[in-house]
Amino acid sequence: MKSKPRSLKILDAVTLILLLIATLLVFFFAPLEAVMGLVQKVFYFHVAAGWVGMLSFMVAAFAGVAYLRASHRKWDIVGLAAVEIGMVFAFINIVTGSIWARPIWNTWWTWDPRLTTATIMMLIYAAYFMLRSGIEDPDRRARFGAVYTIIGFLSVPLTFFSARLFRTIHPIVIGTNQPGAEGAFDMTGRMLATFLFGLLTFTFIFADLLWHRIRLGRLADTVEQLKMKTME
Amino acid sequence: MNLSQLGPADTTSYMIAGFAVIFGVMLLYVLSLVVRTRNLEKDLEVLAELDHE
Q: Do B47 and A213 touch (CB under 8 A)?
C-alpha cells in the first residue's frame, strides 16, 4: 500500500487533538447536571456518535447513487467504508443510550419509538454486510449494495424524526420535547458549547476513519483482483 | 433515580461504563483497521510473488 499521505497524517493529529480537547471540555468545562449527575456527561458523545452514524449512512447513500450513475468501483469502496463506520457509531450510540437509561429511566431498554427505529436502522445496515457476503461477482455485489444503501437510508430520517413524530420518552436536543420525555434538561451556554464541539470532533473522527477505511478498501480491491488474476 | 434527592444522583459508575464503551469500541475499530491492513499487505506480497512466478 502507498505510504500514508501527509494530509492524512495531519488529519490524524488534528482529530486526536480535538478528541482530547472535547474530552477535557466534557469533564472540566461543562457543568455537572443538577439531577442526573455524572452520567449526563455521556450525552455529549452519545449524540455525537448518533450523528456520525446517520452521517455515515447518508454518505453511503450518496456513494450508492454515484455508483449507479458512474459504475465506478471507487464508489462501492466509499459506500462500504461509510456503512461500516456508521455501524460502529450507531452501536456506540445505542449502547451508551442504554447505559444512560438505566439510572434515568430505571431500565436498560424499552421499546420506545426512538430506540426501536434506531435498532431497526442498525439491523437494516447489518443485513447490508450479509447481502454483500452472499454475492461473489464484484460488480453485481457493488450494484446490489448501492441500491440497498439508497433504500436503507429511508430508515435514517425515520429514526431521526421518530422522537418528534411519535409519543416517546426519549428527550430531544433540537426542538421541543414531548410531554412524556424523561431525562430532558435545559442546556447552559457551557453545555451547548461542549455539545457543539463534540459534534465537530466526531465529524473529524468520521472523516479520518472514512479516509483510512477507503484506503483499506482499495487495498482489499487490489488483493481481490490479483487473486482472480492468479486463479485464471 | 430518586427524584426527591437534594443533589445530583450518584451515577459515576454508569458514566465510567459509558465512556469505556465509547473509547473502547473506537479503539477496537482502529485496531481492526490496522490488523486488516497488515493482513492484506501480507496477502498482496504473496500474490505479487505468485504473479511474478
A: no
User: Alpha helix locations (H) across B1-53?
Assistant: 12-52
Q: Considering only CB atoms, which chain A residues are within 8 Å of B52? A: none
Is A160 a domain residue?
yes
Mean pLDDT (10-residue bins), chain A, 232 residues: 89 98 98 93 97 98 98 97 98 97 95 95 97 94 97 96 88 74 83 97 98 97 88 76
pTM of the predicted model over 0.90: yes
Interface predicted TM-score (ipTM) of this complex, two decimals: 0.92
- Is position A1 within any domain? no
Q: Is A46 on the interface with B (CB under 8 A)?
A: yes
CA nearest neighbour of A145 among A215, A230, A75, A202 = A75
Residue reference for cell 482489499 = A220
Q: Is residue A5 part of a domain?
A: no
Contact across the interface for B21 and A33, Cβ inside 8 Å: no
Q: Which domain holds residue A117?
A: 14-231
